[in-house]
Design a protein that fits this description.
The protein is mainly α and 129 residues long. It is built from four helices and no strands. The mean pLDDT is 83.
């Protein structure tokens, strides 16, 4: 393994680890915001807090996407230098998966909100007291 390959491997590992960590935090924060927004009794303060947490999760997702995209040039150079070794392919696959997952999580809350609203409006009212 040449010196260039080692440098590319180190930088790819750093940015993939950063991207994966940011995505994990984004997923946790987004799931927390969904828990706040879609629990049974949501007050005005819960809704405002859930929206702020959702905005924070979007910022974390953007940071995860940027870190994943920054790692791609290092991984491509590493892949060209060492060939299709297991570690170069693993880093590439994880990086692409993090970017795709972070983009999907951007649309998770609107999809869930639409599903909750459509299912709650189709349930007939049983208040016959």
């Amino acid at each position: 393994m040449t010196k260039t390959s080692k440098v590319m491997l180190v930088f790819a590992c750093i940015f993939v680890t950063l991207a994966f960590s940011l995505f994990a935090i984004q997923a946790y924060v987004e799931l927390c915001s969904m828990g706040i927004l879609f629990k049974g009794e949501t007050t005005f303060g819960d809704a405002i807090g859930g929206i702020f947490i959702y905005i924070y999760s979007i910022l974390l997702g953007i940071a995860a996407i940027v870190a994943g995209v920054v790692s791609l040039p290092f991984e491509i150079v590493l892949l060209k230098k060492v060939g299709k070794k297991w570690y170069s392919l693993t880093l590439l696959i994880v990086s692409i998966a993090v970017v795709v997952s972070a983009v999907l999580f951007f649309f998770l809350l609107p999809m869930v909100s639409e599903a909750v609203n459509s299912s709650s409006s189709s349930v007939p009212s049983t208040s016959s007291y």
